[in-house]
Amino acid sequence: MKAFYTNHFVLPLPLGHRFPMEKYSRLHSLVSVLPEVELVEAPSASDTQILYAHDPAYVIKVLKGNLSPKEQREIGFPWSEKMVERSRRSSGATIAAAKTALTEGIAANLAGGTHHAYRDQGSGFCVFNDSAIAARALQKEINPKLQIAVIDLDVHQGNGTASILKNDSSIFTLSIHGKNNFPFTKEQSDLDIDLADGCNDQNYLNVLEESLDTLDKRFSADFIIYLAGADPHEDDRLGRLKLSKDGIQKRDEMVFQYAIEHQMPLAFSMAGGYGKNIESTVEIHFQTIKSALKFQIQY
Ligand SMILES: [Zn+2]
User: Fold this and answer.
1) Could you tell me the distance, in angstroms and rounded to a whole number, from the CA of residue 145 to the centre of ligand 1?
2) pTM metric for this prediction
3) What is the distance in A from the centroid of ligand 1 to the CA of 216?
4) What is the spatial distance between Cα 111 and Cα 267, in angstroms, rounded to a whole number?
5) If both were cysteines, with which of 86, 138, 177, 235 could 9 make a disulfide (CB 3.0 to 4.6 Å apart)?
6) In which element (H, E) is residue 4 found?
7) Ligand 1 centroid distance, CA of 273 (Å)
8) pLDDT at 59
9) What is the whole-number distance in angstroms between the Cα of residue 155 and the centre of ligand 1?
């Protein structure tokens, strides 16, 4: 299985910044010992590809460093050339994983899942919306008839993705998230499930099963983009849910199984994870990669 990485494009962040940049290099080291995974440096998304999902005026502001202080605060990162490079690579990784999955079944982005980025503004550590960009890239560069489902199981709503794709009937957006989590004003996905604080494994897995059934009834997908956020975990600082590591493994397997049963290729990204202990977040992302390997051999 190919896994596209971006961890050597590090964002220069002020000391004590709450974004866990380090998790990506730690995950890369763990994955590098798996013989079944081929690590590939993420290509850069081109301007044209970024524009599949973003407003030209916003893209120009990001590229030229003309974001206002308020816009930078909303993103949560200070602007730098390296921020631009990393954001391009992160979207490029999801595009590359998606194109690879078309022939190989499953492929991974070891970062990505920047689902809070809107068409014309960044937010919540997200500059460009890799899922929306990659979905459109498949349609514009490979096959205009592809119907794509974005299954977003990060604990925060995929508000940017929902907003960018709201009038696009060829891409179905499903988001299962904490009701009381950021973003506090939610957008409308094609299917949204708001979970109460403290949701446990069993409730979560029941809701996921029902949601996949609903997706199946309402949409005929050819391809899945999966955001496998680690932040529904019980030890997450931001998540508010109570999923165990084992529960998250079952969640991942349910999505991979769904893809296999429908013979759909799947590209996945890591999305969020803000464990009190960074090791637990990295372990959950690593677990997702290992689960994907079990399914990749079935394609
Ligand atoms: Zn999140």
Assistant:
1) 30
2) 0.98
3) 25
4) 12
5) 86
6) strand 2-5
7) 6
8) 98
9) 5
